[in-house]
Design a protein that fits this description.
With 287 residues, this protein is of the alpha+beta class. Helices cover 40% and strands 21% of the residues. The chain has a 6-stranded antiparallel β-sheet with strand order 7-8-1-2-9-10. Strands 3-4-5-6 form a 4-stranded antiparallel β-sheet, covered by helices on one side. A hairpin with a 3-residue loop joins strand 3 and strand 4. Helix 1 packs across helix 2, helix 4 packs antiparallel against helix 5 and helix 7 packs antiparallel against helix 8. The radius of gyration is 23 Å and the shape is elongated.
Length: 287
């Protein structure tokens, strides 16, 4: 009882899945493994299809072969809806004959959109059109598709949960290092709106980490993200820009009393280059 999209980005090679449902924790139906592919299992979902489908594709099965093999192992496959994308970007999908209408899927080049228990049967095509005509990174394009699905009618019961998961194009020695975006909303009156907000937060924190815990911020961003303001201020102050460093750290200090205590505790062991001298300069304490 869900609508979703799985895709491989033709530019970056990244794999991703976006999902929304009126059911708690719908994100548990999404599976992705960097360098291997993506699986989504929904309707009367059998979670086995996720990890075991990825396992088959990691062994060299195509998406269609892996899907066929998994459905053979499922005596109730006609109540399921399952879709997979393999490392080549080839997609395969199955909508069981007794899934609750409106139900169906649309497969395109490097993606598949699927839905069941929808207000009408236009949802998958509207999602596909939105994805093909969207711009931005893969996570943003997946969100565009989900929004189009909702605008087309969405789940007949309304909204509750959603997830956007994006993984790297290459296999990683440690599977978890391949996860690029994992935004999960388990219970919310408007999960798509919340996913959109969290994607923006995720983006700015990713930029912050990728830029060595320093980021050029305008005043509105600095006020919205005191954590980033604090550490950027520390970094700038350590580089000798005490004026800008003090300005940014003061945003965090005004936001919560704990930031001042953190400064003091870090200075005791020179963590993150925070010395007693630096603390005194940031707090404008003269000795």
């Amino acid at each position: 009882m869900t609508y979703s999209i799985i895709a491989k980005c033709s530019d970056t090679g990244q794999y991703g899945v976006g999902i929304q449902s009126h059911f708690y924790g719908a994100g548990g139906a999404c599976w992705a493994l960097s360098g291997v592919g993506v699986v989504v299992t929904q309707a009367m979902a059998l979670i086995d299809h996720g990890p075991l489908g990825l396992e088959l594709m990691s062994k060299g099965f195509s998406a269609s072969e892996a899907l066929e093999e998994r459905l053979k192992q499922d005596p109730e496959s006609e109540i399921r809806q399952v879709a997979m994308i393999d490392s080549s970007g080839s997609a395969a999908a199955h909508t069981g004959s007794v899934t609750i209408p409106a139900a169906g899927h649309v497969i395109g080049e490097g993606f598949s959109c699927q839905a069941n228990l929808m207000w009408n049967d236009t949802v998958p095509q509207k999602m596909a059109d939105a994805f093909q005509n969207s711009n931005g990174n893969l996570a943003e394009r997946l969100l565009s598709s989900l929004l189009a699905g909702q605008n087309a009618g969405g789940d007949i019961r309304g909204m509750q949960s959603g997830r956007i998961l994006v993984v790297n194009s290459k296999k990683m020695d440690k599977e978890w290092e391949g996860v690029l975006v994992d935004i999960n909303v388990d219970d919310h009156p408007n999960p798509l709106e919340e996913l959109e907000r969290l994607l923006k937060v995720n983006s700015i924190y990713s930029d912050f980490q990728n830029n060595g815990y320093e980021l050029e911020l305008d005043i509105s961003q600095a006020l919205e993200y005191p954590e980033i303001s604090f550490w950027t201020g520390i970094s700038l102050a350590n580089k000798g820009d005490f004026e800008k460093g003090r300005q940014l750290t003061n945003i965090a200090l005004r936001d919560h009393a704990g930031w001042k205590e953190l400064l003091i505790r870090c200075s005791e062991n020179n963590f993150f280059g925070i010395t007693e001298e630096l603390v005194n300069k940031l707090l404008n304490i003269k000795k």
